[in-house]
From TrEMBL:
A Pfam family of this chain: Mut7-C
Coiled coil stretches, renumbered: none
Gene source species: Streptomyces paromomycinus (Streptomyces rimosus subsp. paromomycinus)
Domain Ubiquitin Mut7-C span(s) in chain numbering: 4-78
Superkingdom of origin: Bacteria
Protein's name in the database: Mut7-C ubiquitin/RNAse domain-containing protein
Mut7-C RNAse domain segment(s): 90-231
């Protein structure tokens, strides 16, 4: 019996995922007659995390639809801003996205990060257990069924990665309120409570401090303040938020690690 032939059009934003010979407009595709449309789309290389509506002959269908011979399929990109129902918006980043994780934390976004490669199954399990959107450039990882939700990070440049995530998910920004090292929340710290941990020059020069409520890391305006403030200001201008910090000022890691990656 002949296998069904469908005609598929992939949104321009998603064509980077498909083979080069299928990137130009409408393309014919043979299916096995039993696989779902979701499986067919993934077989083209497109992660379902990046797919919005699926249209068959102009009508929207679920990923469980089994394509029939002669159908015309349109694969649309996910809408922006993307809603993630069912849990507070928070993220989990894989080992390759450390700089992005620190920049999201700098903006007050809940961004868990694995600094060691714990393996795809463990990452997917954590995404499900904590209901976090898994951010990755690994299409195989995003295809794991255990994931609660996921998103492909399109660029390998931190500035573009940050704009991509903020534009896609529109998280609420609260700059300078999270620890860039561990993701814990910061609170104002009296100088006297942290003074013994400060070097002489810092003790004499600074009076406003914040401290992580989880790992106890101490923060203040430091040498990297201007560079980090530029990141924050650009994000707030484009995506909204407030630039306030614990203690009435911006708090910058004493060793500048938040700016490194």
């Amino acid at each position: 019996m002949n296998r069904p032939e469908i005609h598929c059009t992939v949104a321009p934003e998603l064509r980077l995922f498909v083979p080069a010979d299928r990137r130009q407009g409408r393309t014919a595709l043979r299916t096995d007659g039993t696989s779902t449309l979701g499986h067919v789309v993934e077989s083209l290389g497109v992660p379902l995390t990046e797919v919005g509506r699926l249209l068959v002959d102009g009508r929207e269908v679920p990923v469980s639809h089994v394509p029939r011979d002669g159908e015309s399929v349109e694969v649309c990109a996910v809408g922006r801003p993307q809603e993630v129902p069912g849990a507070p918006l928070r993220f989990l980043l894989d080992v390759h996205l450390g700089t992005l994780a620190r920049r999201l934390r700098l903006l007050g976004v809940d961004a868990a990060y694995e600094s060691e490669d714990i393996g795809d199954p463990a990452l997917a399990a954590r995404s499900a257990a904590e209901r976090r959107v898994l951010l990755s450039r690994d299409r195989g990882l995003l295809r794991r069924r255990e994931n609660w939700a996921g998103a492909y990070v399109y660029s390998d440049r931190p500035d573009e990665q940050l704009r991509d995530v903020l534009g896609r998910f529109a998280p609420e920004l609260a700059p300078w309120t999270r620890c860039t090292a561990c993701n814990g929340l910061l609170e104002e710290a009296e100088k006297g409570t942290v003074e013994e941990r400060l070097e002489g020059g810092t003790r004499r020069t600074y009076d406003v401090f914040a401290q992580c409520t989880v790992c106890d890391r101490v923060y203040w305006h430091g040498a990297h303040h201007a560079r980090l403030e530029a990141v924050v200001d650009a994000a707030v201008r484009e995506f909204g938020g407030a630039a306030a910090a614990p203690g009435g000022g911006t708090a910058v890691p004493r060793d500048g690690s938040a700016a490194q990656g």
